[in-house]
Write a structure and sequence with these properties.
single chain; alpha+beta; Thrombin, subunit H; six-stranded antiparallel barrel; 1 helix; globular
């Protein structure tokens, strides 16, 4: 199932990630590692060949220079053979701080 989500529905601007950021994620089955395509304070788009059903709860772990970031989320968009979009639903204060540090670093690199 593909859920149409326009950029107008997003609360945060997503930053395109050209390479180098990977996420380990689990949605009920085994843990999978995939490349991050774009990222914001509120969510992420993950490259994946197999679709993940919209509405699926997902656990994510980013391992970055800023430190590990553990996030709970829900799949809001799924595109066959391209990947899926996740809205972050829960993360600790330290994880949020590391995510914001990462976004600042990525934003500087994009400009």
């Amino acid at each position: 199932m593909v859920d149409k989500l326009s950029k107008d529905n997003r609360r945060d601007v997503r930053i395109a990630v050209s390479r180098g950021i990977w996420v380990a994620w689990k949605a009920g089955g085994p843990r999978i590692v995939s490349r991050v395509r774009d990222l914001s304070a509120g969510g992420v788009f993950v490259s994946a060949r197999d679709p993940v059903t919209v509405g699926t709860s997902i656990e994510m772990l980013f391992s970055l220079p800023e430190g590990e970031i553990r996030v709970q989320g829900i799949v809001r968009f799924s595109a066959d053979d391209r990947g899926f979009g996740v809205e972050f639903t829960s993360m600790g204060a330290a994880d949020r701080a590391r995510l914001l540090d990462l976004l600042r670093r990525l934003n500087v690199a994009v400009k």
